[in-house]
């Protein structure tokens, strides 16, 4: 087995993590820039609370770190809290621990 990875064991660990996390789709307000990219401004959580995004720290194409769903990952800051927002096709979501 190369590098000591057991694919069966790895799949079990991934499944355990995925069972503890779910996607929560959120309503977003975004600003479209001249180059066609988006800058998230705020989002509304599933209970109706709205959060203004103070700063976008990084933007990367890639998978969700826990759910492995493809899309664009935005690392954002609201106040002192930092979190990932994901853009998946036409939808935005946040990972929520169960």
Question: Overview of this structure, please?
Answer:
With 98 residues, this protein is mainly beta. The protein has one domain (20-97). It is built from one helix and seven strands; from the N terminus they run αβββββββ. A seven-stranded antiparallel beta sheet has the order 3-2-1-7-6-5-4. A hairpin with a 2-residue loop joins strand 5 (72-78) and strand 6. The radius of gyration is 16 Å and the shape is globular. It starts with 6 loop residues before the first helix and ends with a strand. 8% of the residues are buried. The mean pLDDT is 85.
Write a compact overview of the structure shown:
This protein has one helix at residues 7-19, and strands at 21-32, 38-44, 50-52, 55-61, 72-78, 81-88, 91-97. With 98 residues, it is mainly β. The protein has a seven-stranded antiparallel β-sheet with strand order 3-2-1-7-6-5-4.
Helicity, as a percent range: 10-25%
Q: How many helical stretches?
A: 1
User: Secondary-structure element order, as H and E?
Assistant: HEEEEEEE
User: What characterizes the major β-sheet?
Assistant: 7 strands, antiparallel
Overall pLDDT score: 85
Kindly state the number of beta strands: 7
Query: What is the count of structural domains?
Result: 1
The quaternary state of the protein chains shown equals single chain
Tell me what portion of residues adopts beta-strand conformation. Answer: over 45%
List the topology elements.
Layout: H1 7-19, E1 21-32, E2 38-44, E3 50-52, E4 55-61, E5 72-78, E6 81-88, E7 91-97
Antiparallel strand pairs: 1-2, 1-7, 2-3, 4-5, 5-6, 6-7
């Amino acid at each position: 087995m190369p590098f000591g990875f057991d694919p069966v064991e790895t799949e079990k660990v991934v499944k355990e993590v995925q069972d503890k996390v779910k996607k929560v789709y959120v309503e977003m307000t975004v600003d479209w820039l001249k180059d066609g990219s988006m800058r998230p401004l705020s989002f509304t959580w599933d209970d109706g609370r709205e959060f203004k995004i103070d700063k976008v720290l990084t933007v990367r194409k890639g998978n969700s770190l826990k759910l492995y769903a493809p899309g664009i990952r935005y690392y954002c800051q609201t106040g002192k809290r930092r979190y990932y927002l994901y853009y998946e096709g036409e939808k935005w979501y946040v990972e929520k621990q169960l």
